[in-house]
Amino acid sequence: MKKLSLVLLFLIACMVAVGCSKSETSGSKEKDGKVYTVKMSTQQAETSPIVKGFYELADRLEEKSDGRLKMEVYPSAQLGSDDDVIEQAEQGVNVAVLTDGSRMGLYVKDMGVIGAPYLADNYEDVLKITQGDTFKTWEKALAEEHGIRVLSFNWYDGPRHFLTNEPIEKPEDLKGLRIRTPGSPVWQESIKAMGATPIAMPWGEAYSAVQQGAIDGAEAQHTSTYPSRMYEVVKYVNKTSHFQLINGIIVGEKWFSTLPEDLQTLLLEETKAVAEINAKEIASMQADLEEKLVAEGMEIVEPDVEAFKKAADKAYDVLGLTKLKDQIHEEMGR
């Protein structure tokens, strides 16, 4: 009996040991104890409201992952141009980039329509686009064909307006004016269709370029205009609201796939959640930012928006996006 009891105790001990071993192995697949770091790159200045959202995201990721997933925020193009950082992401570097539909249109052409003029009238409209079936096919193409993972595409930075030193009330008033805009084909053609001569350059160079007379103005949203002190070199904010600036955060599929599954889920969920909070804050700030620009000496011009919408249609024809625009509007319920 003693021998039998000892054998039974030995077998039970073995079973417990195996169970613990399996439990530890299973847990290590998700919680391997490794710390993962992603570097968040943006052209936006440290003082930009959207950058505030990135710091909030960083805090939430570290807290909810128990320190296993950390985000370092690099504003003001500290890591280089968006194009350079996106290329690094494709190669598997642990970087994330704030980007827009126009730039992603360089990879999946149809995605550029997000940056086309007057496709949407407000944040709610753009949100419908990014939650639609067509957008989901773009996300899939980015991942499978270009190695780019969209974490979220609901970061909002407000409507964009023309910033000039003379009032702009109709498209004809832009004729001959050199206006800074990002270099994507959609934005270039859109600015051209509305009457101006588009000049591609980094946002950080726009202030000095206007100051030196290299360009006549720019087009931007209030959240960039005010922190960048553009009111020191331009006099008018012409409220055309030609682009509703929706942004996304992307990383490379190679790096994303190195994350344990629980951290992948956390990163996707928290990026979307914080973006929603930040977007609402930015939407509510527009009137206050406008008041601050006026207090700094800028004048607000209310142009003929319908005339600009009509002129902007030419960009859709030139870019071959007219049918896609109609498809998107149908999905939006317009």
Describe the structure.
There is one protein chain. With 334 residues, this protein is α/β, with parallel strands linked by helices. It has one domain: D-Maltodextrin-Binding Protein, domain 2. 49% of the residues lie in helices and 20% in strands. The protein has 13 helices and nine strands. Strands 1, 2, 3, 4, 5, 6, 7, 8 and 9 form a nine-stranded mixed sheet that branches. It is globular and about 60 Å long.
Distance between the termini: 83 Å
Mean pLDDT: 91
- Summarize the helix and strand pattern as letters: HEHEHEHHHEEHEHEHEHHEHH
Number of helices: 13
Question: What's the CATH topology name?
Answer: D-Maltodextrin-Binding Protein, domain 2
Q: Structural class given helices, strands, pairing?
A: alpha/beta
Percentage of β-strand residues: 15-25%
Overall number of structural domains = 1
CATH superfamily: Bacterial extracellular solute-binding protein, family 7
Largest sheet: 9 strands, mixed
**How many runs of DSSP E, i.e. beta strands?**
9
Shape call: globular
Q: At the first level of CATH, what is the class? A: Alpha Beta
In a nutshell, what does this entry contain?
This protein is α/β, with parallel strands linked by helices and about 325 residues long. It has one domain: Bacterial extracellular solute-binding protein, family 7 (D-Maltodextrin-Binding Protein, domain 2).
Which terms summarize this structure?
single chain, 334 residues, alpha/beta, D-Maltodextrin-Binding Protein, domain 2, 9-stranded mixed beta sheet, 13 helices, 49% helix
